[in-house]
Amino acid sequence: MSKRSMWTQCTPLPASVSRSTSIDLLHDHMNMIVLNPLVVRFEPTTPPPNCSENELDSVWYEITDKLIYLPKVGIGKGEVTYKMCFRDLPGALATHVYAPAGLDIKAKWAIEGQLPDEPGQPLSAVIRAAGAPEQGLYVREDVDMRCNVFLTNYCKRNLKKAHATLVERLLAKAQISENATDQTMTPASSTSDRETMYVNSASSSSSLGPDFTKSPYSAVNTPHMMYNGNHPV
After folding, report:
1. d(Cα 138, Cα 36) in Å, to the nearest integer?
2. pLDDT digits (tens, 9 = 90+) for 34-58
3. Which DSSP state fits 227?
4. Distances from the Cα of 90 to the Cα of 49, 52, 59, 65, 111, angstroms
5. Contact present, 45 and 22 (Cβ < 8 Å)
6. Is residue 87 within a helix (H) or strand (E), and if so which, with residue range?
7. Distance between CA atoms of 209 and 176, rounded to whole angstroms?
8. Looking at 165-179, 189-203, 218-232, which range is the least confident one?
9. Helices (H) and strands (E) in the chain, counts
10. Model pTM greater than 0.90?
11. What would the pLDDT profile of 86-129 be if each residue is shown by its tens digit?
12. Is CB count within 10 Å lower at the N or C end of the chain?
């Protein structure tokens, strides 16, 4: 028996992060994969036979997540492998997970909101309750999950926790990207200044997962990655 769960979560973007930088990060599919704290490895793959026709031309990966069935005591560890597609939309990213045991997760990540000099519409009560700010940009995540009724609470809890960490890391990387852009565009900045900034950024964000000051996730040179929770190996 399957149960459907739907929810929306909004997270404000720092004022220093632009709309374009945020959208670029959403459209970096491998970036979105490795920022997820559950992922241990992934590789490009083909669509599953049961995918919808409009997903055939999406970008597909086979991803393996780590599982802890009793997280409070750290026992019952395992892994689950599934297929997931990524489809870029204007200002957003759509994803679809096809996992074992009938777990099906559709998600849409979007950059929404208005800057002070932009016209906008009043927020709905639902979006406001989901965490959207009255002014400024925010990441909006809409999730539609279908799962075995007996696994729903476990899957929903793990998914919300993992995605909260993913968004936290995404915002950290967005801030570093903006700082790097500002630094390289400042004529007075020397090479040594920029190197120091990168070192400090790497040091301050090491607890957030991958090294955000580098780009080792390019599909050009990285067709297959193993991931140990902190750094690609």
Report:
1. 19
2. 999 999 999 999 999 999 999 999 9
3. B
4. 27, 21, 16, 28, 10
5. no
6. strand 75-89
7. 14
8. 189-203
9. 5, 8
10. no
11. 999 999 999 999 999 999 999 999 999 988 888 878 899 999 99
12. N
Q: Which amino acid type is present at position 73? A: V
In the numeric block, the tokens 């777990």 are attached to 103
Rounded Cα gap, residues 8 and 106, in angstroms: 12
Q: State both tokens at 154.
A: 């476990």
3 state SS of 2: strand
Other CB atoms within a 10 A radius of the CB of residue 50 amount to 8
3-class SS of residue 70: strand
C-alpha 183/C-alpha 180 separation (Å) is 5
Under a CB-based contact definition with an 8 Å cutoff, are residues 55 and 85 in contact? yes
Place of tokens 């990524």: 86
User: What letter would DSSP give residue 232?
Assistant: B
Determine the residue type at 27: H
Give every CB contact of residue 166 below 8 A, 6+ residues apart in sequence: 32, 35, 36, 37
Measured CA to CA in angstroms, residue 41 lies from 9, 63, 191, 227 at distances of 26, 6, 35, 5
Please give the Cα distance from 218 to 59 (Å, whole number): 14
Question: Is 95 in contact with 85 (CB distance < 8 Å)?
Answer: yes
Question: Which tokens in the block code for residue 153?
Answer: 């609470």
